[in-house]
Automatic annotation (TrEMBL):
InterPro entries hit by this protein: 6-hairpin_glycosidase_sf, 6hp_glycosidase-like_sf, Ssp411, Ssp411-like_TRX, Thioredoxin-like_sf
N-terminal signal peptide: none
UniProt cross-references to Gene3D superfamilies, sorted A to Z: 1.50.10.10, Glutaredoxin
Superkingdom, taxonomy of origin: Eukaryota
Name of the protein described by the UniProt record: SPT20 protein
Spermatogenesis-associated protein 20-like TRX domain sequence ranges: 7-168
Gene Ontology biological process: carbohydrate metabolic process
The encoding gene: Spata20
Short name of any one Pfam family annotated for the protein: Thioredox_DsbH
């Protein structure tokens, strides 16, 4: 590579996204006091650009505008320019995204916002083309207009920014109204189910026409709704909606059939042409959802998809020290000699390429059939490509094929006169060969930042899949990642989590000069992960750490006046608003997950004030839960768990005994959304016995492993049969 012409102060940052912009001709600053002081000293508008390193349109805007010498000169002359990685600083992103969505009716990344020197927003948008285009104003024009307005109408802009901020403060406030109590769970659950049912795509699954996101929160809600209504037509429909969606996603192009894992979303109704980036948070949640689908249905198809996801993460998103990287990009160079990256280049195929890689005749098939013929038929490959031009506006996928399993194995086998049992092995041979060929292509950019929250989601994925599939290796990998978190993203002196760390030189783990403190979502997803890991491994250290973190979360983020938790802690003068997330999207919002965390924490500790807090969160969100629960399906699900009361399934027995293992396998193999698992191993000095004194009164019956079902620390009659226990676990 040639020596870069420009280097700005982002070269000193650790974030892969900020480093991508370190050689722009723009005089970028990271978010911080140096930039704020410069803006005030020179009385300049701040231009804030927020994105992330695997964001396709962020790359486009950089290529078109931020690498332009002319545009760079305009930016440097008139503005103090700040770059923010939204994954490092979700608090900053959320404040200004709230503004952009409120004033423009839409949002997304890259986010472009203009602020007064005291950080109040007055203009904003997302992607801008460099020059004026049909129906769209160009970035250069916007920059010059805003610079002119600041010179000529500064007071009006300042007044406008003040009014906007006050309006945002009022509209974004979430607090309990009067003496409001948690909303009734039946109405919330029924309304959420009806809203999902109306938006459900009967043909292809999912909950919109296009674009289509995996939305694990919707699927988890439907599984819980089924578990509580399994004998009703509504319950049957909820289960059918979830399982059909999961099957269609797994067959679709959103699923990487060669390299495993799932892309971020589908641009079409059919789950066919994806936006090709792969995000860690999707893999963690989807592994857990597919393992639940296996628990419920017993269909190995779902177990295989969960294994497929974990194979991808283990191979491509895993740090040697134990953590998980954030994402892989959508864009890459088509060949080693290409000068321009293209979206999906790493994943798509030309028909002639497949024919050349799979020329072997297939024994026992219709005469003249090659491996390529079978594979191309099964995965919908066409000579001229299978991507609808409407899904490819920039013609990056012209003549290419995105693999999508369009036939059942039985139909493909019948088409070529094959025994049905042979097809799986043939297709696997083809996939292995293509995986080897694909490995020769330039890989997409890897965002090697490691985030506490997303590592938490992935630990849950490994722990829950390991428990449901009885795969000890997955549980071990979850424990390895939790150890990584405790070593690299936890400060034992302050007892607090850190937000991020980074893959450094020689496979070391590096931290930024001033570490970013953990946000609410970091605590919530890590606590959930530690509870999941305890239930999968029965190592009590994870429980002890989870309860410590829950106390710390209460201290840093709880709103004692309006109830629920703020997303960020108090005391940062650069943060204009302390917000509470109110939507379960690609990730569940932290307050939704923390309701269940608090109920689990109470079951493991006996601290009933955590149950009260859970109810207060539901009360704070009561209006939204009753009107549009589809915006909060994870919190709607938690409403049912709150009202039905979590059941403690206590197994008294020797952890190494076969009878205990049989009982534990029974508990882990059944989907029951309102249970927590406790092993009473007889160690009266252990952490759990100190937390839950009632465990000392529970005994093994006739010397055998014995199960008790307890609610509010009052226990049922003991059972010693796994079959009896299975019956007790079904609501």
């Amino acid at each position: 590579p040639s020596v870069p012409r420009h280097t700005n102060r982002l070269i000193n940052e650790k974030s892969p996204y900020l480093l991508q912009h370190a050689h722009n001709p723009v005089d970028w600053y990271p978010w911080g006091q140096e930039a704020f002081d410069k803006a005030k000293r020179e009385n300049k508008v701040i231009f804030l650009s927020v994105g992330y390193s695997t964001c396709h349109w962020c790359h486009v805007m950089e290529e078109e505008s931020f690498k332009s010498k002319e545009i760079g000169e305009i930016m440097n002359k008139h503005f103090v320019c700040i770059k923010v990685d939204r994954e490092e600083r979700p608090d900053v992103d959320k404040v200004y995204m709230t503004f952009v969505q409120a004033t423009s009716g839409g949002g997304g990344w890259p986010m472009s916002v203009w602020l007064t020197p005291d950080l109040k927003p007055f203009a904003g948008g997302t992607y801008f083309p460099p020059e004026d285009r049909f129906h769209r104003v160009g970035f250069r024009t916007v920059l010059l207009r805003i610079a002119e307005q600041w010179e000529e109408n500064k007071d009006a802009l300042l007044e406008s920014s003040h009014r906007i901020l006050e309006a945002l403060r009022q509209t974004s406030e979430i607090c309990v109204q009067g003496q409001e109590s948690p909303p009734p769970s039946k109405e919330v659950m029924d309304t959420c189910f009806q809203q999902l049912s109306r938006s459900y795509d009967e043909d292809y699954g999912g909950f919109s026409q296009a674009p289509k996101f995996p939305t694990p929160v919707n699927l988890n809600f439907l599984f819980t709704y089924w578990a509580l209504h399994r004998t009703t037509p509504e319950g049957a429909r909820a289960l059918q909606m979830a399982l059909h969606t999961l099957k269609m996603m797994a067959h679709g192009g959103i699923h990487d059939h060669i390299g495993q894992g799932f892309h971020r979303y589908s641009t079409d109704q059919h789950w066919h042409v994806p936006h090709f980036e792969k995000m860690l948070y999707d893999q963690g949640q989807l592994a857990a959802v597919y393992s639940r689908a296996f628990q419920i249905s017993g269909d190995e198809f779902f177990a295989d998809v969960a294994r497929d996801i974990l194979l991808y993460v283990s191979r491509d998103l895993s740090d040697q020290v134990g953590g998980f990287y954030s994402a892989e990009d959508a864009d890459s160079y088509p060949t080693t000699t290409s000068e321009e990256k293209r979206e999906g280049a790493f994943c798509v195929w030309e028909a002639k390429e497949l024919q050349a890689l799979l020329p072997d005749p297939v024994e026992g098939a219709t005469e003249g059939t090659t491996l390529g013929d079978v594979f191309m038929h099964h995965y919908g490959v066409k000579e001229n490509g299978n991507v609808d031009p409407m899904q490819d506006p920039h013609e990056e996928l012209k003549g290419k094929n995105v693999l999508i399993a369009q036939c059942s194995p039985e139909l493909t086998a019948a088409r070529f006169g094959l025994e049905p049992g042979r097809l799986d092995a043939l297709l696997q041979e083809c996939r292995d060969r293509l995986c080897t060929a694909r490995a020769q292509r330039p890989r997409p950019h890897l965002d090697s930042k490691m985030l506490a929250a997303w590592n938490g989601l992935m630990i849950s994925g490994f722990a829950q899949t390991g428990a449901a599939l009885a795969e000890e290796a997955y549980v071990h990998r979850a424990a390895q990642a939790a150890t990584f978190l405790r070593t690299h993203l936890f400060d034992p002196n302050s007892g607090r989590l850190l937000r991020s760390c980074y893959w450094g030189k020689d496979n070391s783990v590096e931290q930024s000069a001033v570490p970013i403190q953990g946000f609410l979502e970091d605590y919530v997803f890590v606590i959930q992960a530690l509870f999941d890991l305890y239930e999968a491994s029965l190592e009590q250290d994870w429980l002890e750490w989870a309860l410590h973190l829950q106390h710390m979360q209460d201290k840093l983020f709880w709103d004692p006046k309006g109830f629920a938790y703020f997303s960020s802690e108090a005391g940062d003068p650069s943060l204009l608003l302390r917000l509470k997330g109110d939507q379960d999207g690609a990730e569940p919002t932290a307050n939704s997950v923390t309701v269940t965390n608090l109920l689990r924490a109470a079951c493991y500790s006996g601290h009933m004030d955590w149950v009260e807090k859970a109810g207060q969160i539901l009360a704070a969100f009561s209006e939204r839960l009753q009107k549009i629960p589809i915006a909060l399906p994870e919190m709607a699900r938690a409403t049912a768990i709150f009202h039905h009361t979590l059941k403690q399934v206590v197994i008294c027995g020797d952890p190494q005994g076969e009878d205990t293992k049989e009982m534990l396998h029974c508990v882990r193999s059944v989907f029951s959304p309102n249970k927590v698992l406790v092993l009473a191993d007889g160690d009266s000095a252990g952490f759990l016995y100190r937390q839950l004194p009632f465990l000392a009164s529970l005994e093994r019956k006739d010397g055998k492993a014995t199960a008790y079902l307890c609610s509010n620390f009052t226990c049922s009659l003991p059972v010693t049969s796994a079959q009896e226990l299975r019956g007790m676990l079904s609501p």
